[in-house]
Amino acid sequence: MGSKERILRQKEETRANILTAAREIVKDEGWQGLSMRKIADKIEYTAPIIYEYFANKEAILQELTCKGFTILIKDLEAAKADSDDPAIQLEGMWLAYWNFALKNKEMYQLMYGVEMTCCAQRTTESDTPYQLISGCIAKLMKVEKPDAHVIKQKYFTFFSVIHGLISINIVGNGLSDDINKQILKDAITGIIRYIEEE
């Protein structure tokens, strides 16, 4: 391996270490505890070196948001691929969404601005979950050319219930796992049934 390749690999490793350190700090102290100085201390670098990779804390937040949406999109696509039936796809994708949020609470908080002083971060990836899910909603509707506004309304009906339940679990003590799963299943099934019967 040449010196250019080795330098490039070292830069990629340092960048990845910065992001990993940021996530570890957030798991321990929450988003309000994240600072460039703490990241530098955690990876045993000086703060100016961190600034060589990221202009500021917001740049780190943006990068972590992109990573979060990339993981979420992969999970949604895998759930969608399990069936050709749009009702089953919708149920699978919303369950995958739920599982992602609970497995990656800090990432979800950042992606959607839950319990944070900043707004949710926008990225090029942040519209993809909507596109994947709304495509299934359109297929489920019994109208030849469903209206985009109606599809959006139905998407946000799902999102409101599921995001609300996730937020309750992130912000508070939440409900038991069994109760959460029953509420989630009832909500998803009920909304799908409502769409199918229209």
TrEMBL record:
InterPro entries: Homeodomain-like_sf (IPR009057), HTH-type_Tx_Regulator (IPR050624), HTH_TetR (IPR001647), MT1864/Rv1816-like_C (IPR025996), Tet_transcr_reg_TetR-rel_C_sf (IPR036271)
Taxonomic superkingdom: Bacteria
Molecular function (Gene Ontology), one example: DNA binding
Keywords: DNA-binding, Transcription, Transcription regulation
Pfam families to which the protein is assigned, alphabetical: TetR_C_33, TetR_N
Domain HTH tetR-type, residue spans: 12-72
SUPFAM superfamilies for the chain: Homeodomain-like, Tetracyclin repressor-like, C-terminal domain
DNA-binding region: 35-54
UniProt entry tagged with the keyword DNA-binding: yes
Keyword ATP-binding in record: no
Protein name per the record: TetR family transcriptional regulator
